[in-house]
Description:
Elements: H1 8-15, H2 19-27, E1 34-36, E2 39-41, H3 44-64
Antiparallel strand pairs: 1-2
Helix pairs in contact: 1-2
Amino acid sequence: MNKQTISVKEAADYMGVSKDLVYQLVRESKVPHLRLSRRILFRKEALNKWLTTIEALSVQQNDKNY
């Protein structure tokens, strides 16, 4: 059975960033996440969609700068 959610550490590894950055994004409500009691969890499909959106916005911003 595949897990439906991943931890902060797993999310950081998955995105290639530090756990501190993941916690910062959670505090600022910039990344899709859910809380179960004190645990912060992420769904990979939600992270993929968010990353795709962030990437598209980055490309648009770069296009405007040229």
